[in-house]
Protein 1
Amino acid sequence: MTLNFATRLRERIMDGGHLCVGIDPSRRQLERWGRDNDASGLEFAALAILDAVSDVAVAVKPQVAYFERFGSAGYRVLERVMSDARDVGLLIVADAKRGDIDSTNMGYAEAWLSPGSPLVADAVTFSPYLGIDAIDPVFSLASQGGQGVFIVVSSSNDEGRAIQCARTAQELSVEEYLLEEIAQRNRTLTPGTIGAVYGATRDRPRFDLAQLGGPILAPGAGSQGADAGRIGRLFERCEPGSVLVNVARDIGDAGPEKRSLRDVAQRWRDDLASVLA
Amino acid sequence: MTLNFATRLRERIMDGGHLCVGIDPSRRQLERWGRDNDASGLEFAALAILDAVSDVAVAVKPQVAYFERFGSAGYRVLERVMSDARDVGLLIVADAKRGDIDSTNMGYAEAWLSPGSPLVADAVTFSPYLGIDAIDPVFSLASQGGQGVFIVVSSSNDEGRAIQCARTAQELSVEEYLLEEIAQRNRTLTPGTIGAVYGATRDRPRFDLAQLGGPILAPGAGSQGADAGRIGRLFERCEPGSVLVNVARDIGDAGPEKRSLRDVAQRWRDDLASVLA
């Protein structure tokens, strides 16, 4: 039987490091690489990054927005990228940040978590504005399939502070409220089903991240704000093998040459290994 | 020159009523209709709803989640549905509820608001958890193109209350904070660029919705919670032609026969005309 997501992730991290590479074939990235801003340029860039980092990263995080730019043609590219990533043994975290009412969330779960879907991933990101309770059917599906759902708790950008730091009726910040809700659910679901997106640029929350019961996906590394030292301090109390750090821009900007992409990814893997358990 | 979204919407509403029909080809809906849960069933259901309501509704709101279930094949169907809706003169509100950091949000804007994109819509829904400031580049693009962005402020489901009613540092609820932020931006953008998703099932906010400066998209009508009377009271102070009410399940469940679908839609149009300006 397939191991659940958190266990698979822990084994990969203990063996291969904490690096998740963001596949972000934005207009800006394609322009930097001298590629046309179309589905063909998109495919070239996404596959080049994948190829360069496949033996350095433990996971890839395709940013769905950049594929969606080209409609169905972009999704065809994303399906190819995900299939190739699976073939080389990388874990796939689909960065979709979906979030709606419960019945609609099941539509998204069918897309990203159902066996047989062309977009099926090991884990997917969800955004909680319409309520974490509305995501419960998605957690159930993920729990059954041994997959993961990362809830955006604390994003790496400053613009999210007004809402993420607002106070709930129980006098918790929205972030603390969500971390507690996640921890509570992880006690009854397949262990580690729900993780948190927690920006590497943020401060340590009052909630003890070691009690989350699920993995952490940390965006905002490198030129997006946080160096390895900061990341190490922020997550120093977390369980070994539970923190996955996403690096996107630093690696993408080193391309398109494979060796340059790979060198930057390797440096990040090594730097993270020196600060994280 | 093309009129901006809020003006086009107002003219349509004043002429043809307040009804937006939700195109929600969920697994549940396809099962009820006796159709296979695949891209072909999806296309049948979506086009049947579109065909039945094209002279009764002023807008359609395809729920992107249900198309995304089938990956690129589902997006091909969505492109066809959007193209057909445009051909029959309906406004299209893409219900995507996207939301990320600013650079990523531009990827979504390229998908849903860029002329020439296969998914280009008249308006798109965004979710604000990563910050309304992070959506500013999207508002700018919409403002330039005479399109609209509906920000999810108050969702129709109860699960969203914990976050949507949390208090910001300025002692506003998150909803009030967002309504004020929208109103402020609408004073400098193309008039009415930013609208609010405000659940028909909710109470009237302390913020005067007549001061929003943009349209309102109200989900949660009918079997999803709110009857016409409630909708009329909730939005009675709003500008004429600024409230678009989405009805999805009541209409979908009346199908698949065209006459039944159309009859329910027509009843909703008439009921809404009797309570809204």
Note: The mean pLDDT of chain A is 97.
Protein 2
Amino acid sequence: MREFELIDVLRTRLAARRDDTRLGIGDDTAILAPSPQTELLVTTDTLIIDRHFPGDTTAFDIGYKAVAVNLSDIAAMGGAPAWLTISLAAPALEPDWADAFVDGLQAACAAYPGPDPIDIVGGDTTRADQLMITVTAIGHVASGRAIRRSGARAGDLIAVTGTLGDAAAGLARWPQREPCASETDPLIRRLVRPDLRDGRALIGRASAALDVSDGFLADLAHILTASNVGARVAVDDLPGAHALAAAAPDLATFRRWQATGGDDYELCLTAPAAQIGPLREALGCPLTVVGEITAELGLMCLDRHGQCLAADMPTRAGWDHFA
Amino acid sequence: MREFELIDVLRTRLAARRDDTRLGIGDDTAILAPSPQTELLVTTDTLIIDRHFPGDTTAFDIGYKAVAVNLSDIAAMGGAPAWLTISLAAPALEPDWADAFVDGLQAACAAYPGPDPIDIVGGDTTRADQLMITVTAIGHVASGRAIRRSGARAGDLIAVTGTLGDAAAGLARWPQREPCASETDPLIRRLVRPDLRDGRALIGRASAALDVSDGFLADLAHILTASNVGARVAVDDLPGAHALAAAAPDLATFRRWQATGGDDYELCLTAPAAQIGPLREALGCPLTVVGEITAELGLMCLDRHGQCLAADMPTRAGWDHFA
């Protein structure tokens, strides 16, 4: 059974029945309304050793990443993260490891842009053969204002924050990395400590958004499916770090890292052209326009000469853990 | 490092900093106030194959138990569960298995006493060497009314719902069980499908409560520590099912299953004597008085002749996954 097949089954079978469930399974987060004036965003993500991070990742970086990938989901809905629970399953518990892990959890919370602290309010520890961390994040959003995947409209521009492909390049370089590489190597650093964006900047400006976790094209396809639209993407406009260009052995690898690499945790959003400037200012980070939403379905990738690139991209789930 | 040492470190290091975090790590659930009028309860629990359930447990029963143990935490705070997220890590995904697992998730939600449905609003699936399920549950509670572990007062009675020890006896019998034992054998059934109690009955009546997961005495000790009180427990008054008495080879085993067996997921509560009758009526299930809270610290276990039993019971964490 493929992962997306299971998710489809779950989405159908687990359709929301409560009046105060505004949105159930299928977006970056659920939307819950515990009171008429309050909406919350809830998301959960599991990280497993040797699958979501290399086995020799430091405890600090594991803690950081486990928190960051969840905060990123809250941001992609336009929310402000408030609370986390942490479930840790591990073969053993070493005090030094646990201490550095907690440092990493807290560092990711502190790195989130915004005025309010984020509290870790619960969790669970248990023994398992493999190191595995499940984080659940809960955030606030102004009622009715959360940015869903389904809001993209023909004519909207497609934009991404920061740069794409760094994490994929960092992973490729991992086995040969220097000691303390996550402190010194920008690509390695992006792999283990994703940059966090302030999702509140999206409210009232973006029409749809998600965080780039599976790979830019695969994630964009989620927006297209949910919004029932298509897109043209200018592959050569995808924002890349200088370090990425230096690390790529050839153009094909460079494009592959950027377009399908995954693990970037940048925000991919759609918005009317007039909102791109205000979004860039509110986000306070680079925001690059990389394409346009079309009424015609399908995802077309063009190079700088307007040539259509072979669409050997996944059109559905980007990364299937059970494929 | 022992599990309770880690939890102590976490409790200290992760002290709440937000005004809207009413209670952080250390009780059955956290208490969060997303708006001045609203309080939510949040808890998370991980179940791992061969550790929290035998490897040949059915998919239905695994799903049921993973949900039930979390709903039980919400109930123990006096809350009404509303939403769940489910994180599933498994070596493979078989459609039949997944279908029965979802049946089990939904059956546990449906079995929770109360008028409102419980929605599963998110989750995550990933491949892992071991089957592992992490559930996060979110519930409602009237503002300021949640039942904490710290409210027990000298003179309060100690009471437990249902019967104790069935799950431990079921686990002892597991290797020799009949096919479909979870349908037909009451002890096996209690092991995999814990009875769920309506936590709202505790509000305004119980002074402290928790769910019996590690074992009755170990869990009661959590209340004593949090409330800074002691207790006298009449071991022979602990409620036992007829099936349990029939299954126990001797009195010592019977007492051990009841007092330290764990996995019961019954509610252990303290309350003034005058509240026991109203509590029994509101809960709609058997509620048995088994002891009394004392100003003198310590946990004293007495048999029917008033003899003090050797206190070879854990005084702190009952079940340490890393011991």
Note: Chain B has two domains: 3-141, 149-302.
